[in-house]
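hey so i finally got around to running the thing on that chain from the lab meeting. sorry it took forever, my laptop kept dying and i had to restart like 3 times. anyway pasting the input first so we r on the same page abt which one it is
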Amino acid sequence: MNEAASQKQAGLWLSKTVVRLLLLLWTLIVLYPVFWTFVTSLKNNQQVMLGKPWDFPSVLHFENYADVWNRAHFGSYFMNSILVTAGSTILSLALASMTAYVLARYSFKGRGILYFIYVASMMIPTTLGLIPLFFLLSDMHLSNSLFGLTLVYSVGTIGILPLGIFFLVGFYKTLPKELEEAATIDGCSFSGIFFRIMLPLSSPGLVTVGIMNALTVWNEYIMATVLINDPVKYTIPVGIAVMQGEMQYRTEWGPLFAGLSISMIPVIVMYVIYQRQITGGLTAGALKG
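ok and heres what got predicted. didnt touch it at all, straight out
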């Protein structure tokens, strides 16, 4: 028995070690290009073009960040992305949470069909709605507008609203019905039950959906390219594409990589702050579907 137990423990230790080594290898693969992006952002043109690609800069050129922020109008791109991402995330969370709560907790005719329509809309390609959306926004005088782009992102053209509804429906089904019954006995209205009780309890799911929405909108390129043609209103993905087309012929690799580094900082900070909420929210809604 002792020999069998020791062999079992040795096998478990070996399997855990292999898994940890694979995770460590994957971490290095992911962090390697991020690390060299920040390193290259601190080089000047001579160090990038004439030096060895893997050399560390002998002098740190932090002025690349100020250069790209002011001269290349990256500060404008950054603020536009902040406004669009924050606005679309808040509006999408409000729509997804209320819709998911009704679909999860109330029975009415057509509920299953409506839920199926939302879930099925996730399979519609984003590019399929580009032309209709362009003409629709033009008719509503919202084309070439950050507000119009925010509305497009919020209603789920890129699949975030249906995904949020799909995720939150499963999350709301895990919450006990006794809370609603007790609140109803105390005289709380339907809206009061949702905003005072159910919405605060669903904060882990809301954080997870909100982060997925924010990351998707932050990196979205196709919609912003088609619907925005004013350089002053470019978001970060469009601005970086324009900068790449200009700076690669002027060999301004340092400022270009500085812009890429700035665009990654909010994503990294978001993951560091909300990593526990993300993992907790993903598992919390997996009990019922």
